[in-house]
Design goal:
With 205 residues, the chain is an all-alpha fold. Helices cover 75% and strands 0% of the residues. It starts with a helix and ends with a helix.
Amino acid sequence: MFEHLELLCTELLATDAGFAPFKEVLPKLYRAPGFYKDLVYFLGEEGVKAIKETPEVAAYKAHLSMLAQANPILLLSHCYTQHLAMASGGQMIKVMARKKMQLPADQGTASFDFEGSPSALKTEFLDQLNILGGKLSPGNTQAMLDEHVAAFHYNNSIINRFPIGWLQTASCLLGMVPSSMLMAAAGAVGLVAATAVGAAVYFRK
């Protein structure tokens, strides 16, 4: 999906006046090369070639292609949703993933690496997006908001294609919690349990 969105944006940066203000910042936010590097690291070249496109990804790509033809500026809403997420919460995920998976230096998290400061790139993109927003018609402003919601819808449909059990989810979440916090929580639970047992014994007397 990222590759398709970025290919469409690259074409529009060269041909669409509405994309001109984003000519410098948008390519620096591109994630597809990093995703490919990570996939090769985890799966190998042959494993990457074996990946099959799901119907959900195909549907998202078709929607992006439709926007590129009908109202190209709306693609920026998807860039905002997808790319800035990688520059925001994605940076926290990168740190946790590297720690949890004990990855070697510069391997496995290239999709979160940016050319320059992620925070500065976010600010630059948002500044241009806000300027653009002040020029949009009410209809296009609402359409931009609608596409922001649509991006989440497509993301969820793609993720739901690969259901993850509650046990794996719980294990992953626990793995993100610092050991000191886990020990404190375990101690608190133990204290509550001991107090409950003591109270039960007392009131039985």
